[in-house]
Design brief:
Elements (H helix, E strand, L loop, with lengths): L12 E2 L2 E2 L5 E4 L2 E4 L5 H23 L4 H9 L1
Antiparallel strand pairs: 1-2, 3-4
């Protein structure tokens, strides 16, 4: 993948075979795109954080003792 403002194609060969040029791929759980922007990756991470936050909210509203809730919030 080539990252830049102007789209262009490049030809990279390994052992005589041309590698496929892609516009996007995942590396270490991050989505990288040829445009250099990471809007999609940011949306995914915000969604994951919201999901965890919603689960924690349900847990804290539930019938746990106050001391347990305090320990959960501190961690």
């Amino acid at each position: 993948m080539k990252i830049g403002r102007q789209p262009s194609t490049i030809k990279i060969t390994v052992d005589g075979k041309i590698l496929q040029q892609v516009d996007e791929f995942k590396y270490l759980e991050s989505s990288l795109s040829s445009s250099g922007y990471s809007e999609k990756d940011i949306r995914v991470r915000v969604g994951m954080a919201k999901s965890v936050s919603d689960k924690l909210k349900k847990l804290l509203i539930g019938g746990l003792k106050l001391e347990v809730k305090k320990r959960l919030v501190k961690t």
